[in-house]
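Need Indoleacetamide hydrolase's 3D structure for a figure. Predict it.
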Amino acid sequence: MAIAEYEKLDAMALSALIARREVSASEVLDEAIARAEKHNPAINAITIPLYDLGRQAAAAPLPAGPLAGAPFLLKDLGSLLAGTRSTGSSKLFADFVAPHDATIVARYRAAGLVTFGKSASPEMGLAPSTEPAMFGPCRNPWNLGYSSGGSSGGSAAAVAARILPMAHATDGGGSIRIPASACGLFGMKPTRARNPSGPDVGEGWGGQAVGHCVSISVHDSAALLDASAGPDIGDPYWAPPPVGKFLDEVGRDPGKLRIALCVEPWNGEPVDAECRRATEDAAKLCESLGHAVTIARPTFDVEAFREATRVVIAANVYATLAARAKAIGKTLEATDAEPLTWSLAELGIRYTAADYAAAMTVIHRVGRVVARFFTQHDILLTPTMCSPPWPLGVLSLSSQDTDAYLVAVNRSIGFTSLFNAAGNPAMTVPLHWTASGLPVGVQFVAPFGDEASLFRLAAQLEQARPWKDKRPPMIG
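Structure prediction for Indoleacetamide hydrolase:
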């Protein structure tokens, strides 16, 4: 490998080397591609290589900026890159070629990021594991028999394997935080509408779906959000503007935070002892850093909330499939999707417009409950998942064991999905590994619009208990 200690360098460090002309962007990309060719056959994280496109970008003049020249992967789900396939691991979209860039992708280009591939996603991003029938399972670099999480499992696996230090991810119910937790990474889900969803859609899943990244460092995540955040012309709504740059928050004193500790998920699923231990240990770490920790949680009608989110997601799944089938001139049928994707589409067919309107009312009501909770607390601390990473096969959308699948889904999203509905920023921080060597993240949530507090706290935790140099055994 050509660049000394590449796997220890984050995106900002690589960009700094390029800016100082110690290496070129092309040499950095060559290193990323070499690592992809070495590790991807084992983990299956990159499903659509775009190496030639990356080489063209790396050879072009770079803009000034903290991430210019850094290698990058886009998740193969809605992140349109002009002239490239965007499949969402769905056979209906197998031949879809993006006619233009998504707004967020255009901003990544403007920041000088060098995209060299698309990362794996489950079909339509619908599972908390990445095991699409179209491309096959993505494997966790910490243990190849286990899931890398989902739906941004390809990005998380690639970063965990140190193919690159940061990659694009999206999150509609935990899909940034779950794979980051499973792969030992930092994962920030921004506030609703912090990043644009256009130009083709105004919002995803009724505002629950957002895009950002998984990374090995906190300041990479902050720098990327600086590059991508802010409304685009015509956006239906946007997040409260930040006071300053997110990158400037990294390293600032977070002050004495009022942290609420919750280790019981809202959906009532049992919590694995490792996840409980990780969270309680994180609470002790926060106390040692001067923060005040008390036990508290927002309360609401959980069953009404679960049904409401089911309505919104199912309706969106059916609408997406139906629109694509119409566009390519075919009749939509069950064989056009994996079995558990199709079961959601069937629900979407049965729900009415009135059901959808009522569901959105429930979701907004829950959001107000969460907002009131944060008038009394600065941060909420929970496990990221109810369990460590799952073995491969349990969370496949083609699983024949629907009961086991649903149990695993609920134990994956029990702490995460609430904050997609409420819109709060939430991050998972890699502070714990199991005795068998699997990562277990812990989740921190802040008030709506307050990524700044999360970045300050994350940097403090990163300094107190560094994780960047922890790497899977498979990469040596």
